[in-house]
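Page 37, continued from 36.
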C-alpha cells in the first residue's frame, strides 16, 4: 500500500540518510556517497547498531565504491558481533535449561532469539545482554539461581509501600568472569499501567529454532507490542529498534490482534508512530490489515517528533543526558500517553518515593502517612535543594 506519511528530514545528517537508503533499497548507487564524511558514517552506523546489516549489504559491492578503511572497520565489528551473539546464544540456552529444571518458566524478550526469528541470522542484529521475563512469584528463586551461577546483582531498588512491583520492571545482574549482563524482568515496561499477564504471554509463546534445548520467546503480536513500547520509550533513538519493527512487518502477524492489544494496553499511539517511521524511513510495506493502526490521527505528528533523536544522534543511556534532550524527551513521552496513561502517571506522582522516606523517616507502620504528607515533603526538599550551595 502506498506510503501516506511524509516526514521532514532536512536536519537529519546526510550520513544517516545514506544509511537509511542502503537499508531501504538493499543496494547502492555510487552517486549516493558523494560528499559523505566516512568517519561520521561509521559513527552513525555504530550508534544506531545497524553495522551488521550494512556490512551484509556493502560486502557485495564492487571494490573501490566504499573506502577500504570503512569496510575493514565494518568487517571487524561484524565479526565481533557474530562471536558475541553466539556467546549470548550459548548462555541463553544454559539459563533456559537451569530455570526449566527448577520449574521456572521464562520468556526471552530480545537478544539472539529475535535476531534469529526476525533476521534469520543472529549475526545481523546486535545485543549486549540477555533479557528475560518471568512471573513475579518466581523472582526470588530466579535471582538465587543466577547468583549461584556467579552473577552479581548490579542495582538495588529502594521502595516505599512495595511500589517496586509496578514502578520498576527489571533487575540487572552481571557475571564478572563471563563479562555478561542479564536482566530479570517481571514486567514488559516500567509502570504505571496495565500489561498482559505472564500467563497470557506464556500461552501465546513461540519456541525458538535457534537452540537444541527449548528456549521460548514472545508470540509475534506480543513481540510487536513489546518492541513498540520499548522503542517509543527510548525515542527510537537507535535505528536498530525501528529495523526490528520493519522486519516484523514482513512476517506473518495477526494485525487485527495487534491493533486490539495496542488499544487494550494503551500503546496505540506508539504503534502508529512506529509504523509511520518504518514506512517513511525504511520503506516498510503497510498492508491493509495494518492501516487501522497507522490511521491514528497522531501518527504523523508523533513520527515527526521522533526525528529529533535522529537529528541529534541522541544517547539516552549515558549520563548526564543534556538538559535540552532531557526536557524534550520528557515532553515527547507525555505526548505518547493516552488519557488513561496520563491519569495513571499523575496518580503515580502522588505515590510516596524513597526520597520522601529519606527526608522524613517514619516507622514502617506509619508509612501510609507519606501519602497526605508527600506534597509538603516535596516542597521542603525543593526549598532545601535550592538553599544548599
Amino acid at each position: 500500500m502506498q506510503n501516506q506519511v511524509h516526514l521532514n528530514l532536512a536536519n537529519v545528517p546526510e550520513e544517516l540518510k545514506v544509511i537509511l537508503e542502503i537499508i531501504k533499497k538493499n543496494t547502492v548507487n555510487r552517486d549516493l556517497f558523494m560528499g559523505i564524511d566516512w568517519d561520521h558514517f561509521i559513527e552513525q552506523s555504530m550508534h544506531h547498531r545497524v553495522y551488521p546489516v550494512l556490512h551484509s549489504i556493502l560486502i557485495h559491492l564492487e571494490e573501490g565504491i566504499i573506502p577500504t578503511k570503512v569496510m575493514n572497520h565494518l568487517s571487524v565489528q561484524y565479526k565481533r558481533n557474530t562471536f558475541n551473539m553466539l556467546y549470548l546464544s550459548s548462555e541463553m540456552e544454559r539459563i533456559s535449561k537451569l530455570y526449566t529444571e527448577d520449574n521456572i518458566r521464562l520468556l526471552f524478550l530480545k537478544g539472539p532469539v529475535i535476531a534469529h526469528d526476525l533476521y534469520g541470522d543472529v549475526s545481523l542484529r546486535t545485543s549486549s545482554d540477555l533479557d528475560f521475563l518471568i512471573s513475579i512469584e518466581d523472582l526470588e528463586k530466579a535471582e538465587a539461581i543466577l547468583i549461584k551461577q556467579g552473577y552479581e546483582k548490579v542495582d538495588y531498588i529502594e521502595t516505599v509501600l512495595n511500589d517496586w512491583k509496578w514502578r520498576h520492571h527489571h533487575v540487572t545482574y552481571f557475571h564478572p568472569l563471563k563479562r555478561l549482563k542479564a536482566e530479570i524482568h517481571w514486567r514488559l515496561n516500567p509502570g504505571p499501567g496495565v500489561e498482559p499477564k505472564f500467563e497470557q504471554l506464556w500461552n501465546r509463546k513461540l519456541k525458538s529454532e535457534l537452540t537444541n534445548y527449548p528456549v521460548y520467546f514472545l508470540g509475534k503480536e506480543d513481540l510487536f507490542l513489546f518492541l513498540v513500547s520499548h522503542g517509543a520509550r527510548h525515542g527510537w533513538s537507535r535505528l536498530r529498534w525501528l529495523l526490528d519493527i520493519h522486519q516484523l512487518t514482513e512476517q506473518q502477524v495477526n494485525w487485527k490482534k495487534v491493533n486490539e492489544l495496542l488499544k487494550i494496553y494503551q500503546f496505540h499511539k506508539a504503534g502508529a508512530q512506529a509504523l509511520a517511521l518504518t514506512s517513511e524511513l525504511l520503506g516498510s510495506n503497510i498492508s491493509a490489515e495494518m492501516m487501522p493502526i497507522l490511521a491514528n490521527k497522531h501518527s504523523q505528528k508523533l513520527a515527526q517528533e521522533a526525528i529529533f533523536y535522529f537529528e541529534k544522534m541522541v544517547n539516552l543511556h549515558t549520563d548526564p543526558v543534556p538538559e535540552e534532550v532531557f526536557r524534550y524527551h520528557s515532553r515527547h513521552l507525555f505526548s505518547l500517553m493516552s488519557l488513561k496513561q496520563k491519569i495513571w502517571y499523575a496518580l503515580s506522582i502522588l505515590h510516596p518515593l524513597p526520597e520522601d522516606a529519606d527526608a522524613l523517616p517514619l516507622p514502617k507502620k506509619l508509612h501510609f502517612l507519606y501519602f497526605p504528607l508527600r506534597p509538603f515533603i516535596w516542597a521542603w526538599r525543593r526549598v532545601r535543594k535550592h538553599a544548599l550551595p
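The domain at 89-218 is CATH 3.30.460.40 (Beta Polymerase; domain 2). Flag for discussion at group meeting. The first helix runs from residue 14 to 25.
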